[in-house]
Write a structure and sequence with these properties.
Elements: H1 3-8, H2 11-14, E1 18-27, E2 37-47, E3 53-62, H3 73-79, H4 93-110, E4 115-120, H5 123-137, E5 144-151, H6 152-160, H7 165-171, H8 184-204, H9 212-223
Parallel strand pairs: 1-4, 4-5
Antiparallel strand pairs: 1-2, 2-3
Cofactor: Mg(2+)
Family: Belongs to the RNase T family.
Keywords: Exonuclease, Hydrolase, Magnesium, Metal-binding, Nuclease, tRNA processing
């Protein structure tokens, strides 16, 4: 494969200069500005020389509830997190996001991208909590796009007809242990596998890199 061909398979060219980062957040409620962020995990991605998307690095933190935050009893009962258990080894939002943003900025630079883009299952939820936390700590520049995301729930609905993470993974042939669900680390890793499969499946179907001559022939057949 020539150098010119290799350049086509750089991650920056696949996602219009954005660097995708898979994220899952566990919280003490649904309101990003008032409810506590309790756990966050990220998985960074890489693309090999043949253009296949793969899992790269992982970061995971338990988070101390920020001062004045609300703990919704039904939310912590659901995700089984005790926010004040000293054995959690929780850190501040500032400490966790500083480490996460540092790694993301490094990956953005290494891949010649211009900004990170959040990938998540039902991405609006995680994006809102990430942006609210970034705004609270204030002093660290946020490397993520302020509103654009990749939502694996929507993509899975299109490809598999399933929007629930466990069911979408099963349809994709990815093992899913429901006893580990709602752990930020486990859900992030499974979402990363799912996103890679969605992107790589499109490539296997011939959808990327765009084959304009093949597409023209398909259009002619469709319109015949």
């Amino acid at each position: 494969m020539s150098i010119k061909q290799n350049l086509r398979f750089m991650i920056k060219n696949r996602f219009r200069g954005f660097y995708p980062v898979v994220i899952d957040i566990e919280s003490a409620g649904f309101h990003a500005k008032t409810d506590a962020l309790l756990e966050i995990a990220i998985v960074t991605l890489k693309m090999n020389t043949l253009g296949w998307l793969q899992i790269d690095d992982t970061l995971h933190f338990h988070i101390k509830p920020f001062k004045g935050s609300i703990i919704q009893a039904e939310s912590v009962a659901f995700n089984k997190i005790d926010p004040f258990n000293p054995l959690r080894g929780a850190v501040s939002e500032k400490s966790a996001l500083a480490s996460i943003f540092k790694l993301v900025k490094k990956k953005i630079s290494l891949n010649c991208c211009k900004k990170g883009i959040l990938v998540a299952h039902n991405a609006n939820f995680d994006h809102n909590f990430l942006m609210a936390a970034a705004k609270r700590i204030g002093v660290i520049k946020n490397p993520f796009h302020p509103f654009t995301t990749f939502d694996t729930a929507a993509l899975s609905g299109l490809i598999f007809g399933q929007t629930v993470l466990a069911k979408a993974c099963q349809m994709a042939g990815i093992p899913f242990d429901t006893t580990q669900a709602h752990s930020a680390l486990y859900d992030t890793i499974q979402t990363a596998h799912l996103f890679c499969e969605l992107v790589n499946r499109w490539k296997r179907l011939g959808g990327w890199p765009p084959n304009t001559s093949h597409r023209k022939k398909q259009d002619e057949m469709f319109n015949a």
